Amino acid sequence: MGHRHKNKKLGILIFLVVCVLFLHYCTIHDVVLRHAIYRMLFFLPLVLGSFWFGLKGAIFVSISIIIPYIPYVYHQWNGFYQEFDKFLEAGLFVFMGCLLGYLSEKQQREQEARLKAERLAAIGSAVSQIAHDLKSPLMAIGGFTKQVTRHLSIDHPDRKKLDLVISETFRMEAMVKEMLDFGRPFQLQKTEENLNHLAAECIEISLPFAKSSGVDINTEFDPEITVRPLDSNRMKQVILNLLTNAIQASSSGKIVSVRTKREKQGVALDISDCGCGIKAEDQQKIFEPFFSSKKEGTGLGLAIVKKIVELHGGHIILFSNPEGGVTFSIKLP
Hints:
Blueprint: H1 3-26, H2 32-41, H3 43-75, H4 80-150, H5 159-183, E1 191-193, H6 195-212, E2 216-220, E3 228-230, H7 232-249, E4 255-263, E5 266-272, H8 280-283, H9 301-311, E6 315-320, E7 326-332
Parallel strand pairs: 2-4
Antiparallel strand pairs: 1-3, 4-5, 5-7, 6-7
C-alpha cells in the first residue's frame, strides 16, 4: 500500500468519525431514534478500517470513536442500569471491529502466501527446465576438455587455459545443481539424528576452507540435545551453506561461531559471522530466490536453505550482531 494511498484512506476514516460525532453532539439528547441511527453509522468507518488496515485499523477506529464519545456519554449519564445497553453496544462494537480486523488480516496473509507459492512454483518450473537443458552441454564440455588436457604436457602453454575451462565448468555445474535443487520437490528421508553430530561433521568438512581464509571456527554445543527425526543429508546441506557464507563474509583473523541450544519448542542452531553485516532492507529479501549480495552465485542458496528448514517443520531467521556481522538462527521442533 503506497504512502499517499494510505494517508488518503486514513483521511476518509477520520472524516467519517468526525462527521458521526458531530451529528451526535449537534442533536439534542431527547431524539433517541436519531442517536441510535448515528451509533449504527459508527460501524461504517469501523468496517472500512478493518478491511483496509486489518486489526490495527479496527483498534485505531475504535479508540478514535470511544475517546471523543466519552464526554457525550458523561453529560447524558442517567445511571449505570439505564445506560447498561450502551455498554453492551460499545463492547459489541469493539469486539466486531477486532474480529473483522483479524479475519481481514488472516485472509490477506493467506492470499499473499498463495500468490507467493504460485510465483515460486512458476519460477521453480522455469529454473528446472533451464538447468536441465544446461546440464548435458556442461558435462560434455567438461568431459572433452579433460580428455584434451590429458594429452598435453604439464608445461604446455594451453594447459592453464584448459584448466580454467574445467574450473569454470565445474562452477557452472554447481550452479546448475542449485537450480535443480530449487526447482524439484524435496523428498525428505528422515532418520533419528543428533544435531550436534551433524554440525560437527559439517565443521570438519569446512575446516580446510576456513584455514585457507584465515578464519577460526568456534563451537558451543549443548550436550543435552537429544536425537530427533532429520534428513541428515539435507540438514548438512543447510549447515554447510550457512558455514560457507559465514566464512566468506568474515575477514582473516576473525571467528565464525556455531552454537546449539535447547529451547521450549525444540532446538536451535546459530551460525554467526564477523563480516560487514547485511543491510536492514536486504534482510527482508535475503531468502527470496535469485537475491544475492555477492557477485557470484545464483542467489538460490538461502532460498533452498529456507525450503529445507521449513520442510522439517522449522523456520530460519537472521539478526545483526552488536559487534558486527549477522547470525542465522535455525529453529527446529
